[in-house]
């Protein structure tokens, strides 16, 4: 599973990291002097060689039967991944708050503390089912709190409710009194969520995080850093249109997608982004960092691992897509969002021991839900 290593070079001690780093390779003969170089330019020959490599490794496609298995059992392949690696695979992100200051504490948030305390006193977070009786099927219901209404779904008669929202609403909706809500989708074992909770001391902050791997979610929930007063981790498949998110539309300030959309079959990406877009408040942001076209990981795939154009399956059954900037722009703008940032981060990583060079390509996007016109 060597292909999954979405990390860059850390800044030195005490250094403030520039966006996309600031170590530039001006003299190619110095390439093995450091472990990584930022913002590298590709030559035309290099780009052409990468294109040829992709044509080669895409020439033969995985058979239809196996493709169905990888799709239907996608969560199981990720469960197996986390059973093996637990929380030792993906490193915490030194770049997180430089690239996405939206996740860091907001300036002048002290006034929110008072608001938060007021809200707590008022006991706003009780969220109960207000409509419909038992036995109704897949019908949207709402349960209300003074500050947040959550969407729920009931199981058909005679079946057990497998998702947690209904149960949550009957008790208490986590984060209902928060003033700043972040939702991370495909959170894995919490390598983004835990740094946010550690760094962002905004008393109004609440972090929701989900993954379709129950093994990963369990690792998040059982971590000593997991604080149910500030965070709610739940199992959720972002492609499952019948499974509601436990938060209502227009309630989330920031949606975070870090190396997760690439794990989704391309023909389900648009609907997944549309749903997430609806959860955002007006003015809310969708943040993404993911694999870019011709990243080293794409060029390393062998013939027979390609599922469809730029979409591959790894040896362990997990899948990965390699995006262009335009494709991501289309996904987000079709979902009604406005571009704030859509950048390619090209980095040269170096294995000095083996004298190897590895060209990484990541894409970083920020798209905003338009503000409502003032009346
Ligand atoms: C490459 S890992 C990244 C994990 C995490 N975002 C990180 O950066 O450490 C991709 C994650 O997406 C999750 N995932 C893949 N497809 C998903 C889906 N349809 N719904 C929810 N999570 C999904 C996987 O279980 C895995 O945890």
UniProtKB/TrEMBL annotation:
Residue ranges occupied by any Methyltransferase type domain in the UniProt entry: 183-285
Protein name per UniProt: tRNA N(3)-cytidine methyltransferase
EC number: 2.1.1.-
Cytoplasm keyword on record: yes
Chief site of localization: cytoplasm
Domain of life, per lineage: Eukaryota
Coiled coil stretches, renumbered: 40-67
Leading EC class: transferase
Assigned GO CC terms: cytoplasm
Keyword hit for Protein biosynthesis: no
Gene name per UniProt: Mettl2a
Span list, region Disordered: 1-20
UniProt-annotated location(s): Cytoplasm
GO BP terms in the entry: methylation; tRNA processing
InterPro entries reported in the protein's UniProt record: Methyltransf_12, METTL2/6/8-like, SAM-dependent_MTases_sf
Organism (species): Octodon degus (Degu)
């Amino acid at each position: 599973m060597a292909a999954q290593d979405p990390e860059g070079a850390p800044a030195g001690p005490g250094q403030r990291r520039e966006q996309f780093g600031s170590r530039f390779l001006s003299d190619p003969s110095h390439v093995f002097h450091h472990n990584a170089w930022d913002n590298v330019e590709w030559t035309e020959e290099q780009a052409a060689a990468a294109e040829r490599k992709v044509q080669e490794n895409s020439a033969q496609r995985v058979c239809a039967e196996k493709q169905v298995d990888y799709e239907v059992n996608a969560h199981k392949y990720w469960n197996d991944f986390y059973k093996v690696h637990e929380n030792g695979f993906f490193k915490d992100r030194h770049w997180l708050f430089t690239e996405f200051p939206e996740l860091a504490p907001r300036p002048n948030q002290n006034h929110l503390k008072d608001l938060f305390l007021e809200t707590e006193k008022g006991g706003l977070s009780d969220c109960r089912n207000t409509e419909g009786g038992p036995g109704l099927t897949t019908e949207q219901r709402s349960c209300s709190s003074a500050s947040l209404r959550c969407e729920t779904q009931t199981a058909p008669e005679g079946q057990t409710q497998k998702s947690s929202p209904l149960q949550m609403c009957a008790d208490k909706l986590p984060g209902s009194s928060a003033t700043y809500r972040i939702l991370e989708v495909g959170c894995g074992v919490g390598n983004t969520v835990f740094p946010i909770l550690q760094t962002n001391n905004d008393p109004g902050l609440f972090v929701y995080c989900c993954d379709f791997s129950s093994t990963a979610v369990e690792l998040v929930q059982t971590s000593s850093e997991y604080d149910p007063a500030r965070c709610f981790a739940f199992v959720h498949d972002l492609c499952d249109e019948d499974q509601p998110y436990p938060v209502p539309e227009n309630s989330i300030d920031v949606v975070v997608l870090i190396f997760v959309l690439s794990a989704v079959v391309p023909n389900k990406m648009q609907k997944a982004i549309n749903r997430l877009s609806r959860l955002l408040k007006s003015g809310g942001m969708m943040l993404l960092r993911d694999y870019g076209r011709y990243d080293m990981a794409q060029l390393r795939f062998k013939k027979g691992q390609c599922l469809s154009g730029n979409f591959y399956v790894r040896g362990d059954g997990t899948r990965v897509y390699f995006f262009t900037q335009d494709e991501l722009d289309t996904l987000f703008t079709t979902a009604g969002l406005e571009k704030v940032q859509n950048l390619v981060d090209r980095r040269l990583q170096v294995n000095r021991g083996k004298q190897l060079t590895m060209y990484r390509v990541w894409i970083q996007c920020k798209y905003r839900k338009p503000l409502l016109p003032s009346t």
